[in-house]
Amino acid sequence: MNKSTSLSKTNKCLIILIICFLISTTLLxxxxxxxxxxxxxxxxxxxxxxxxxxxxxxxxxxxxxILSYKQASKTLFTPIKTETFxxxxxxxxxxxxxxxxxxxxxxTKQFDFDFIVNANAQLMLSDYISTFFSTEININxxxxxxxxxxxxxxxxxxxxxxxxxxxxxxxxxTETQKKEEITNPAIILENWKHxxxxxxxxxxKYYEETEKISQLIASPLIPIGLKNKLEEFSKLVNENLLIxxxxxxEISKELPQKFPTAKSIKKFEAAGLWNxxxxxxxxxxxxxxxxxxxxxxxLKIDKLID
Length: 306
Description:
Blueprint: H1 3-33, H2 39-99, H3 104-110, H4 113-132, H5 141-149, E1 151-155, H6 158-164, H7 168-173, H8 185-193, E2 200-203, H9 204-218, H10 224-258, H11 262-265, H12 271-280, H13 285-298, H14 301-305
Antiparallel strand pairs: 1-2
């Protein structure tokens, strides 16, 4: 409803009021001509009629004004809602692009978990070799350095941090002491039982993909329910990184029994490690499907198709 429509409605109301007033006046004249009303009755009748019609006029004008304002408000904010919806659709497109048609294998490659598991396993194996066979096997330090170049950052578990990080206050008060070299095989084996791998290194590819999720979560245009599911997905990805460390810890406990000699450790294969990691990792595909289904239901795609 535009302004011209509102004015036409007001004019109609005025015409109706004028007609009613003319009819009342005509009836009044007829009654007066017949002598049924005296002058005081006519004066009272005219005054009352005028007051009633004034009240009705202002009431009708007020109602028309309110209705016109409501309609004008809808018209005014429609472009804003339309632009917001367009921006929201763009945010949904980004989410669909990230999750659509992805399987568990796709997510493993997307977050570079295959390389992360194998690379961290090599570092854990280097720790094992340097602990038990340092005089029999030379670790290729150049290969280790090349491997470390592929890392972009690292995560640590709470227990590993407690064991390996020293608070600044404690560090200032104590002098760094050189570790005593242990040669007793029994003590070395006992210490290895308490070995905990860390830090858990990740690649630039992993970092970039997790940053994409953070950007999707940060969008103010997505519904809170969808934001919660994205945050849950992000937590699962982070948990899978920490599971790499837990898996390596389990494998490390088995090494002294399965590979007790320098010759046997050369037969170590990462296939068993990868299988154990697959058993422990959190599956990402089911939650990804939930995210896609949420968007489908939010946009009411089925109703649009029908």
